[in-house]
């Protein structure tokens, strides 16, 4: 078999392994999924009328439309924390050392984690999206091409954050440290335009919300689904995704190439 065929075969095996782990131990994914769902319900039913009034809406439906795209992006950040924990567990419990002694493609272990995590992220986004639709979210006038672009953005963002999460898992001494190291993937959406517009934030805080990956990604997704202005956020979101993916890939590859601890 060619090197490419071996890599595809071994990566597929590792992908099945990670999906089986996710199916047999769903508690981690469910716990991480619970955070964006609870925040969605909290902000809609507790703060929705007030927030909508502050944004000039007649009822909470205006705020639901604003909120859901941000929560969808937050869902990706939450889900990838499980990837950091899973990678750290593999590194510290000895299975990676065993894989190194086997005749398998070296990068297939990481590829299996990344592809499995992206699939879980997409599934989580779909579930949160269903909750959003159930409580009143409606996409207004999005074309089939815009829906396709929105899906592509979600997958690309999930891929970028997953590679960063893999790197965090590789440098963490244990699963608890991996979970703590990956917490910015949940905290950054809280400091973005996910819940309130950047223009409504204090002047000293706006740069924190503007100059980070979540805000342009959220604004791009919001524009695609709701028909609002995207402006420069589209290319910024793609640039952030590509930059984080490349950084995470080389960081993970360099760390994985070291001797196992």
Walk me through this protein's architecture:
The protein has 12 helices and no strands. Helix 4 runs antiparallel to helix 9 and helix 11 packs across helix 12. The chain is mainly α and 261 residues long.
Helix content: over 70%
Q: How far apart, in Å, are the first and last alpha carbons?
A: 32 Å
| Helix segment tally | 12
List how many beta strands DSSP finds.
Answer: 0
Structural class: mainly alpha
Gross morphology = elongated
The string of secondary-structure elements, in order, is HHHHHHHHHHHH
Mean pLDDT across all amino acids: 86
Residue fraction in strands: under 5%
What is the C-alpha radius of gyration, as a whole number of Å?
19 Å
Biggest β-sheet description:
none
Would you identify the regions where 5 or more consecutive residues have pLDDT less than 50? Answer: none
